[in-house]
Design a protein that fits this description.
- By secondary structure, the protein is mainly alpha-helical.
- The chain is built from 16 helices and 8 strands.
- The strands form 4 sheets. It has a two-stranded antiparallel ribbon with strand order 1-2. The protein has a two-stranded antiparallel sheet with strand order 3-4.
- The radius of gyration is 32 Å and the shape is elongated.
């Protein structure tokens, strides 16, 4: 849905006469049928509104007296966090005025007007109906004003809903095209480049803490039939892994030297050797900086070579260690490609441009009837309401990625799919701000929650754990014995939840990476491989990780967390998940 090639309707209100309402063609262009129905409904509502104003002023004896300018109520409303004050006139121009407020203030501006109006509307018990020339209670004017305002507000809400539905459809269309291209790339690599063979294997394994019970475990092996490509890639990846570890070692040594240098500078100096120590550390710092720079440049050049020979080989880089075998390399690449193709397929089936999540969240309302959405009734704000639902549901519902993937939304504007001077672009900008705020609030909530549970864990008594069954493909099913307090039980429950949550975060992060138009470009392949490797290692060792989390939480320590990863690049800042480098602070 667009509203034309310019925003003149929004920025320049028209005079207060109904016949001008449909003189501006940009009013009709959001969607012809909807726009015409909105115009007709607005004119009818305004006519009823004027009748109510006349009744409130004159009583029923003079129903044909014209409405005067003084009959249209005015209020002063403070916008922009108290910095701006504006006069709102409740006449025929209200619709366009609300559009203008929405452009610059978002739905919060509409809420400011509604809140100011609420203070002037008396309770129903205090109203006197005008009759027989009896002077009306002035409050009856405000009842009519409030009714007219709410009707106009609902028309704007319908326009915003239609714009969000259309933005979602366009984003979903772009994402499904991206997923299709990525899936074709993997399919070609699998069948034509690597020519991978996949073999199914079965074996019996003991179930932990089960007194000898076994379970059938299915695994798969992967082998390249293209031996020439395998040989070449093995040689290049071997050197890349060596340089990767050399670079990481250089960074670690540099960090150690800088810490030592800082301590030396902060220590009171009583002897000459202290100055010599500082000079030596400074020299070491410079040498290590140069070493790290050279290692990074060499690693980058090797990655470029891999990108020329076989870009998808970068997926395995983070999963390999010095001394890896050719079989290990083929296994890692095969596992990653199989998993990624499955994820692309899952996402492709979950994202349907013709199935709108926004339309389901905000059911279509008959024009002229009050909008029954919680977003409006509870004064949450339409964009915020949708964002909250998207953030909460995106990890479990691939279909919501259309509304959560900032990169795709940005590209729609950059490529002109969403015209920059259209009403859609206004809704896009307001939604994006709400999305950024929503993810930041979610991140802050998770940080506060983590701190709370960490403190509770330190105060709680040690847990007595009888058994913990952790099948990789199912929910955790902890069996507890000897849990002494409710606090201990709460810590245990949250510990298990945090492990499941990390997996969900990784799944969501992988989806976001795979959704982009350039997901399999050279600079993104190593990133996808890193996320896949982290998740694979979590699943391979999930039982051990679950136990370590429980034991360390009970003892007051913190489990070493996963790497930081960026969910999305926003207008103003990077939005990060729970994952971070190194260990979290206690």
């Amino acid at each position: 849905m667009t509203t034309g090639s310019d925003l003149s309707i929004v920025i320049h209100p028209v005079p207060d006469r109904p016949e001008r309402f449909d003189e501006n063609p940009s009013v009709r262009e959001p969607e012809a049928d909807l726009a015409e129905r909105l115009q007709s409904a607005y004119r009818a509502c305004f006519a009823e509104y004027e009748k109510e104003l006349k009744k409130a002023r004159n009583g029923t004896r003079t129903p044909f007296a014209p409405v005067e300018l003084s009959d249209y109520r005015k209020i002063s409303v403070v916008f922009n966090d108290g910095e701006d004050e504006d006069e709102v006139v409740f006449d025929f121009s209200l619709y366009e005025y609300l559009l203008e407020i929405y452009v610059f203030e978002g739905w919060n501006g509409i809420l400011r007007i509604e809140e100011a109006l609420d203070k002037l509307v008396p309770q129903p018990a205090g109203l006197d109906a005008p009759s027989g020339g009896v002077p009306a209670n002035p409050g009856t004017h405000w009842v009519a004003v409030q009714t007219f305002f709410r009707f106009t507000r609902d028309l704007l809400a319908l326009l915003i809903r239609e714009a969000l539905v259309e933005i979602e459809r366009k984003a979903a269309t772009a994402i499904t095209a991206n997923l299709s291209r990525s899936a074709n790339l993997i399919s070609t690599a699998w069948t034509a480049e690597f020519r991978i063979e996949r073999e199914r294997k079965e074996k019996e394994e003991l179930v932990p803490f089960s007194e000898g019970k076994t379970v059938k475990v299915v695994s798969y092996s992967y082998r390249f039939k293209n031996r020439e490509l395998s040989d070449s890639l093995f040689e290049t990846l071997s050197e890349a892994v060596r340089q990767k570890f050399a670079y990481e070692d250089a960074l670690k040594s540099l960090s150690d030297v800088r810490d030592a240098l800082l301590r030396a500078k902060q220590t009171p100096r009583y002897h000459e050797y202290q100055d010599e120590e500082i000079a030596g550390l400074t020299g070491s710092e410079l040498e290590l900086q140069q070493l790290a720079y050279r290692s990074e440049e060499f690693l980058r050049s090797i990655r470029e070579v891999i990108g020329i020979k076989c870009p998808l080989g970068l997926i395995a880089l983070d999963g390999l260690r010095i001394g890896f075998t050719r079989e290990k390399m083929e296994q890692k690449i095969g596992e990653a490609l199989w998993e990624l193709y499955g994820r692309l397929d899952e996402m492709g089936r979950g994202i349907d441009p013709e199935h709108s999540r926004v339309a389901a969240m905000l059911p279509a309302a008959p024009i002229g009837k009050p909008v029954a959405w919680d977003a409006v009734k509870r004064r949450v704000g339409i964009e915020k309401y949708v964002v909250d639902a998207v953030i909460d549901g995106a990890p479990d519902d691939p279909g919501r990625l259309s509304l959560a993937h900032e990169e795709t939304l940005h590209r729609l504007v950059e490529k002109g799919v969403i015209a920059r001077d259209s009403f859609e672009s206004v809704v896009y900008a307001q939604y994006l701000c709400a999305l950024i705020d929503g993810i930041e609030a979610k991140r802050e909530d998770e940080k506060a929650s983590e701190k709370f549970w960490g403190n509770l864990g330190r105060m709680s008594a040690a847990l007595s754990l009888a058994s913990l069954a952790t099948p990789p493909t199912a929910e955790f099913a902890p069996v507890l014995m000897g849990v002494a307090t409710i606090a201990d039980l709460a810590v245990l429950a949250y510990s298990v939840h945090s492990i499941i949550g990390n997996l969900a975060q990784l799944d969501h992060a992988l989806r976001l990476e795979l959704t982009g138009a350039d997901a399999f470009a050279l600079e993104h392949l190593a990133r996808i491989g890193e996320l896949f490797q982290i998740r694979s290692e979590m699943l391979d060792n999930i039982e051990q990780q679950a136990l370590m989390e429980l034991v360390l939480t009970a003892g007051g320590a913190r489990w070493a967390s996963l790497k930081k990863l960026t969910l999305m690049r926003g207008y103003y800042f990077d939005m990060e998940t729970l994952l971070d480098d190194g260990e979290k602070e206690n």
